[in-house]
Design a protein that fits this description.
By secondary structure, the chain is mainly beta. Helices cover 10% and strands 44% of the residues. The protein has two domains: 50 residues; 423 residues, 6 Propeller (Neuraminidase), CATH 2.120.10.10.
């Protein structure tokens, strides 16, 4: 019996050491997590693929900015962008391209059709794929004497081969800066700014389709201007697991001295919304700058998304008082937007400017971040991935920043649009489209993440505690001692 006891003790001791080593290694490389937040043995991104030029047509429009992307069936990739005469001018047409071979090759760009055959300007592209339907929302406005401004939503059931187009909006004046989402029941929501051109008053409206984009109904005035010079800008719409609707936006002053990020919720499918919650009241610097100083325009367009545990995240860019530079920040809410966590800084390098962030959430509830980083007179897009140990912890692990672009863009190109995008596929791989000036004009490029075997990470806002391996070892030793005493 003595030998058997000794063997048992050695076995448990070796097992505990092995477990400690495994947990320590995973804490170093990827963090040990459980349940919906499991990250062990999941892909981490170590680099990005070769950059692929998508905007290959320059004959009519030499500049291309503000890209959008969606992932379809069998990880087909759909991309869109706006075309313009200048690098900082309004959009004239929006284009579409797709790849069926994981981004290796792309179809030739095709301009989206005009609504009703009218000659319009087109801008603000936004793609969403859901349950066999591909939706492409874009702004159309008058280029002739015919008064027109609305958001067109084009629907395709053959992955972009053909499109059915409808006017999705019913505002009173100039529709602008729309975002779109589709809930699990197939309802389409489009949130947008409605700007009264005579006096600058800005409304935020919500429109909805219950028939897969065949028709839309204006259902809600989300917010309107309280007093000049305060305005609303850039509504971002999403839904939770119960199909409740959420909208985030920037509330700012025209002189760009301050700006708040607000989030509101609707529990009746967008008919009415709750009192908005200010999630950056401690700083009030989520402003929106024009490109008047010879530098790129810094847009914040707050991004909100839910993970599978109904944790709501909000990501935005903000002007930092200390050195008047820009940074990107994240907060989350576990009570459907009523209260919010502390701030997390997403950009790894804090010098220079980091702005125009976007994010997507994969099947393991990991956060995939992208943003522009400007150092000196050049900027390029960067990627980081973040995750929490579980649904209770406040420790955010973020992998080291990776450059997405092979080349930098000169800051003389002052308006790369108001956003660029990242979306993850069925394998949790991020795909990114961005505006790029390497060829002395603004173009749209694409790249996807490449998996590495392990990943190093840095910790932001870390809480102290006893390592899991220590707890396991103590438990094993206590068990062995009690067993020996009992015998």
């Amino acid at each position: 019996m003595a030998k058997r006891k000794s063997f048992t003790i050695i076995f448990y001791f070796i097992f505990s050491l092995q477990l400690i080593f495994t947990l320590s290694l995973s804490n170093t490389n990827s963090a040990t997590t459980t349940g919906l937040y499991q990250t062990l043995n999941k892909p981490f991104i170590g680099s990005f693929s070769e950059n692929v030029l998508l905007s290959t047509e320059d004959f009519l429009y030499p500049h291309h900015v503000e890209p959008t992307i969606a992932i379809g069936p069998n990880d087909q990739i759909f991309a869109g962008w706006k075309n313009a005469d200048g690098h900082n001018t309004g959009g004239l047409r929006v284009s579409f391209s797709k790849s069926v071979d994981y981004g290796e090759t792309w179809t030739a760009p095709e301009d989206m059709p005009y609504y009703g055959g009218l000659l319009t300007g087109q801008s603000d592209p936004w793609l969403v794929y859901a349950d066999g339907y591909l939706y492409y929302a874009y702004l159309e406005y008058s280029r002739t004497a015919t008064p027109l401004s609305h958001i067109t939503v084009a629907t395709s059931i053959d992955n972009g081969e053909s499109w059915n187009r409808v006017n999705a909006t019913g505002g009173v004046d100039f529709a602008d800066k729309e975002t779109m989402t589709v809930d699990s029941a197939g309802n389409i929501y489009v949130a947008y700014d409605d700007i009264v051109m005579d006096n600058g008053t800005t409304y935020m409206r919500l429109t909805k389709s219950t028939d897969h984009g065949q028709s839309f109904d204006e259902i809600c005035l989300i917010a309107d201007s309280v007093s000049d010079p305060i305005d609303h800008l850039g509504p971002y719409v999403t839904t939770d697991s119960q199909n409740d609707v959420y909208v985030a936006w920037l509330w700012w002053t025209l002189d760009a001295t301050w700006g708040d990020v607000y989030v509101t919720r609707s529990i009746n499918q967008g008919l009415t919304f709750s009192t908005p919650v200010d999630i950056n009241a401690d700083s009030e610097n989520g402003t929106f700058t024009a490109s008047l100083d010879g530098q790129p325009m810094k847009g914040t367009l707050p991004v909100i998304r839910f993970d599978d545990n109904d944790r709501l995240y909000c990501l935005w860019a903000e002007l930092i008082d200390a050195d008047q530079s820009w940074g990107t920040f994240l907060r989350y809410s576990d009570d459907y937007g009523l209260t919010w966590s502390d701030r997390y800084t997403i950009n790894q390098v804090v010098n220079g400017n980091q702005w125009q962030p976007d994010m997507d959430i994969d099947s393991q509830n990991r956060l995939h971040f992208v943003y522009y980083d400007q150092q000196g007179d050049f900027f390029k897009p960067y990627y980081r991935m973040g995750y929490f140990n579980d649904s209770l912890t406040t420790t955010l692990t973020i992998t080291d920043a990776l450059p997405i672009s092979d080349e930098s863009t000169n800051a003389i190109f002052t308006r790369p649009g108001d956003y660029f995008m990242v979306r993850v596929d069925s394998k949790d791989i991020p795909h990114v489209v961005w505006s790029d000036g390497r060829n002395n004009e603004m173009d749209i490029y694409y790249s996807h993440g490449i998996v590495q075997a392990t990943s190093s990470g840095s910790i932001a806002n870390t809480n102290t505690g006893i390592p899991i391996g220590t707890i396991v070892m103590v438990a094993v030793i206590v068990f062995i001692i009690r067993k020996r005493r009992a015998n």
